[in-house]
Amino acid sequence: MLARLQQGIAIALAGLALGWIGWTWPDAPGWTVGGLVVIATGHALFLGAEFMLMHRVNRSDPSPRATWPQLGRAWLGESLQAPRVFGWRQPFRTQAWPDQEVPAVAGALPGELPGVVLVHGFFCNRAFWNPWLQRLHAAGQPHVAVTLEPVFGGIDDYAPLIDAAVRRLHAATGRPVRLVCHSMGGLAVRAWLRQPGAEAMVGQVVTLGTPHHGTWLGRFGTSRNARQMRPDSRWLQALASCEPASRRARFVCYFSNCDNIVFPARTATLEGADNRFVPGLAHVAMAFDARVMNEVLGRP
Question: What global pTM score does this model have?
Answer without folding.
Answer: 0.94
